[in-house]
Write a structure and sequence with these properties.
By secondary structure, the chain is an alpha+beta fold. It contains 1 helix and 2 strands.
Amino acid sequence: MKKKAQQRIYRINTEAMVEFEKWFYQMRLRWSSRLDTLDVVLKGGSMTIR
C-alpha cells in the first residue's frame, strides 16, 4: 500500500489471485455436482450419492 495525501493505492498480488481462481473453480465444480444430485433427490428421483 502506498499512501499519497488522502489516497491509498493498493496493488493486487496476481499470483495469489490465480491460485484463488483455481481453487474457486474446483469448488464450483464440486458444489454444482452435489447440488445437481440434491435437486434430483428432492424431485423424487433416485440417484446414487457419490
